[in-house]
Amino acid sequence: MITISGFEKSYQGRLALKIPSLALPGGVYWLRGANGSGKSTLLKAMAGLLDFKGSIVLQEKVDLKKQDVAYRRRVNFAEAEPVFPEFLTGQEMVSLFAAAKRAPATQPQAYLDSIGLTPDLERPVGAYSSGMLKKLSLALAFLGQPDWILLDEPLITMDAAALEVLYQWIAACRAAGVHFILSSHQALDATFLPGLQTLVVEDKTVKPLA
Ligand SMILES: Nc1ncnc2c1ncn2[C@@H]1O[C@H](COP(=O)(O)OP(=O)(O)OP(=O)(O)O)[C@@H](O)[C@H]1O
């Protein structure tokens, strides 16, 4: 469960998103909304990457603002358009994230092998294509033992084979009790994401679709 209360985010004094109260019990959520509606703002705030007014609390006890290290270890995030330091290799990025997220020893390799990134790990990420960067950032978002994984536009730039792998990762994590929020402009297919629930971002707020 994630509970959002009294949430407000403004940029340069201009309100972007306001959520008086929202409780997300868990499962898989499709975060849907028009361009500029506030999807990335919500996900970045929930990932602890944006300052905001109000509170976000995990499982009624881990407050993002008060226990930020514990919270961030349990909530993972992948950006829509990942930007990494270009001089670091894929392997160096994986090692950094694996240490920060306390990933079990063999976990990173399993993800990288299945998505086909292993042959490119020694190359600097500045030499990666946009699809390779996306695969790397998604693999990083699965490291550790998160309770929630937030994926901003995970479908963009992914080829069909990579998408199938992503759905397999999500299914395996769901079976282990991990919850997901995926933002997407494309409709998500409930065949691949059983129990899919919808959150709509409009009029500068977020509501579950009844
Ligand atoms: N760094 C920023 N500075 C100023 N305004 C911002 C900034 N980031 C986002 N905004 C504004 O906040 C609002 C929500 O933006 P956000 O990126 O969260 O939308 P989104 O739903 O993810 O959009 P898209 O579907 O186009 O990616 C928009 O009006 C946007 O202009």
UniProtKB/TrEMBL annotation:
The lineage of its organism: Bacteria, Pseudomonadati, Bacteroidota, Chitinophagia, Chitinophagales. This is ABC transporter. One of its GO terms (molecular function) is ATP binding. Pfam families: ABC_tran. SMART domains: AAA (SM00382). InterPro entries: AAA+_ATPase, ABC_transporter-like_ATP-bd, ABC_transporter-like_CS, ABC_Transporter_VariousFunc, P-loop_NTPase. It comes from Chitinophaga parva. Keywords: ATP-binding, Nucleotide-binding, Transport. It comes from the Bacteria. PROSITE patterns: ABC_TRANSPORTER_1, ABC_TRANSPORTER_2. Residues 2-209 form the ABC transporter domain.
